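SAMPLE LOG
Freezer: B-3
Tube label: C17
Construct: single chain, 381 aa
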Amino acid sequence: MDEQTTGDGGGGRGGRLRSALTARRGRAALAGGLAAALVAGWLVIRAVDDAEAAKRLCWGAWSQQDKPSLLLERDDRAFRETAPTPERPRGSCTITASRTYGTDETIHEKISVSYGTGPKDAEKRRAWLAGLFAGARDQLPAGLPGFVSKGSAALVLPEKCDVDGRPSVVTVSGTQSDSEGDTASLPGVSSEPWQAGQVLVDVANRGMEKAGCAPEKPLGFTAPIVSVHAPDGTFDTSFAPGACRIDGLGPAPRHGEEDEDGLHSTVGPVGDDLQTCVVYWSDNMATQFSMTAHPRLLKLFDGLTGGAPLARGWRGQGYTDADGALVRTRCAGRTTVMFMQNTAIAKDTPFATPSRVFPVYAAAVAKRLGCAAVTPHGEPA
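STRUCTURE (predicted):
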């Protein structure tokens, strides 16, 4: 039997064609509607993502939702930042804000972040290093080459981030200012050193990503930051008590209203990798002492040592001048740097002459580490 055909009937071939076209148009319309909805949804999500991204500062490292948060969420908050790049591996970020209590008390807060190698000029680099190590109140754990204090933190980045042979360093510092002056503080961060270490590592990881030198595994630590400071009696050189708990290192600064000439000292970590101390006069840094045997921290002193002994009879290369002293030597099987740097304030203190003061420090540190004498007679005469 031949196939039946009709001209306009809905059940014939033409009717089936029109039904298929109608169904196709319906599916196209549905697909178009879904696509429009997806695009609209994507735009909403993208708008939310952009809004969240806009709240992340310092190269995208921090947001207000992070704990601890350094973003100072105030109506008058302002910031400026320049991210490091592979072509220009230097960066900075500054956040400022103010808080007013009542009608007459306003506190201004400022956070500063830097990414870079520090000064190339030797004299400027010495002063920069003194300031850097002055903030070494607690050492970072897990072997990380860095340290933290109440108002600052610093981390030396891996070798991949070196520029012209010099290590890149990320620093974070904070200041709160009121009518009575400035106080070193990181707003939003407690006095617990691990919190300062956490925000430091966050911004360091982000900076390395921007500079194109990030390691495969981001830097971090889970162990607590344990304060390692020298107890009384750690240094016993049979000299009269002195600064930094080192016998004979200048006069013995005392705390309180009876401080002679306003001198006092703050001892930082005392370990095999790092030892620091800062001497203050009237609350201003007069001089800074440090020792390090950590390979990445040692790298910061490259180019400052020279190739000659510090002086006749010294073991190791270095220098001494009116502004400070440095010796690079072998101590207990490790390369070790001992360093002193004065500020202009030191000229009015017993620490004004490094050639007299530094041997006391170097001898005490060498004895504590259990290495051979560094100074000509083991201990200064």
